[in-house]
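Hi R.,

As promised on Friday, here is the backbone we talked about, encoded as structure tokens. Could you run it through your design pipeline when you get a chance and send me back a sequence?
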């Protein structure tokens, strides 16, 4: 059945979601200040667009007044306030903004308004949480580890990295202390710590290091003694990132340069963005492995989920947009068809609690060429 859907954000992921939902037969409206991206959606797909800001509460409420669901694809710094405005407007929402604030602070408000919100529903956080949420209902989980990264196929000096989202949001991965759980204790270490090499098919050797990607899992899975997420990059990346961080290039504290106040991180982002920006048609990939261990029916059990996905030339869609965006559109469909109706703000692991929803998401992704391969040991 056709539904009215408003997508907030016309970035690489936002546009991938708008196109996917449009192809599924829904009436989609995309809102953004970038007229070039909006014109692309209008001319190629006939998607309705609104060229204005959605970060102002009252104008946003007017924009979404007829929406059956709102898709949040705002930059992280706007995500929390946008989610709050959507809740105040009484609308259901699925969101991939990955805001730095604790989105569960909006849970009481969402329940009061009687709306269903699913936050952090991308690939990681997102689908990895859904996988854990499912297995947590099937077994006694002792250990969960997720390693994940998005990288260009072609390694180019000096960075050997390209990003499909805001450089400032990426840089935050390199500065925010990483939290994980070991033997029942929450441990905090600097980002980029505990560097290890790992071999993953079909890429080969990559570098993994601590990042603060567990987010809601630290609160929703208190009974699991070991929880860990690490980010993947090409070998050698960590060393130069540590150098930049140590020299202050990622600092948010203002300094004075020729009488002008600037934040070093803003300058760094401006310098890095041209080198990080994925060019049209450039090949890149997303790689992720989720390992879950514990006891099931009185016996040791181990499940491994592997994801490898590349840029899709046919649809001209980057892999990170596919793996993130299509997980989010699948969650939107679950809300729209009444399969997930939990009121309040829900982290993605809650979706996995119901086996039918877990299987639906895997099927939804597979139909779009995003395939999770499962191994049982």
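Update: got your reply. Pasting your designed sequence below so it's all in one thread:
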């Amino acid at each position: 059945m056709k539904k009215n859907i408003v997508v907030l954000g016309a970035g690489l992921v936002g546009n991938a979601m708008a196109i996917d939902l449009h192809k599924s037969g829904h009436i989609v409206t995309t809102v953004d200040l970038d007229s070039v991206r909006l014109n692309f959606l209008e001319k190629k797909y006939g998607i309705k667009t609104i060229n204005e800001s959605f970060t102002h509460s009252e104008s946003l409420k007017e924009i979404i007044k007829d929406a059956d669901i709102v898709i949040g694809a705002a930059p992280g710094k706007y995500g929390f306030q946008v989610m709050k405005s959507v809740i105040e407007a009484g609308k259901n929402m699925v969101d991939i903004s990955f805001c730095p604030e604790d989105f569960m602070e909006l849970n009481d408000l969402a329940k009061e308004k009687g709306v269903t919100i699913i936050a952090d529903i991308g690939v990681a956080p997102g689908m990895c949480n859904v996988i854990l949420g499912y297995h947590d209902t099937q077994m006694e989980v002792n250990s969960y580890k997720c390693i994940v990264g998005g990288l260009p196929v072609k390694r180019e000096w000096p960075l050997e990295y390209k990003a499909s989202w805001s450089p400032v949001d990426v840089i935050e991965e390199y500065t925010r202390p990483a939290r994980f759980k070991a033997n029942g204790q929450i441990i905090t270490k600097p980002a980029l710590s505990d560097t290890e090499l790992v071999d993953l098919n079909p890429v080969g050797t990559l570098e993994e290091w601590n990042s603060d990607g567990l987010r809601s899992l630290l609160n929703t899975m208190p009974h699991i003694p070991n929880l860990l997420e690490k980010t993947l990059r090409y070998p050698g990346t960590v060393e130069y990132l540590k150098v930049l961080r140590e020299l202050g290039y990622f600092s948010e504290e203002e300094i004075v340069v020729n009488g002008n106040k600037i934040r070093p991180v803003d300058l760094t982002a401006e310098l890095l963005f041209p080198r990080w920006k994925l060019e049209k048609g450039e090949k890149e990939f997303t790689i992720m492995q989720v390992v879950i261990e514990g006891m099931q029916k009185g016996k040791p059990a181990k499940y491994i989920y592997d994801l490898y996905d590349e840029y899709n030339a046919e649809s001209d869609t980057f892999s990170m947009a596919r793996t993130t965006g299509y997980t989010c559109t699948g969650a939107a469909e679950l809300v729209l068809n009444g399969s997930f109706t939990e009121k309040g703000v829900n982290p993605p692991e809650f979706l996995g609690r119901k086996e039918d929803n877990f299987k639906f998401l895997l099927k939804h992704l597979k139909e779009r060429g995003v395939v999770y391969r499962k191994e049982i040991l």
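One thing I noticed while checking it: The two ends are 41 Å apart (CA to CA).

Thanks again,
M.
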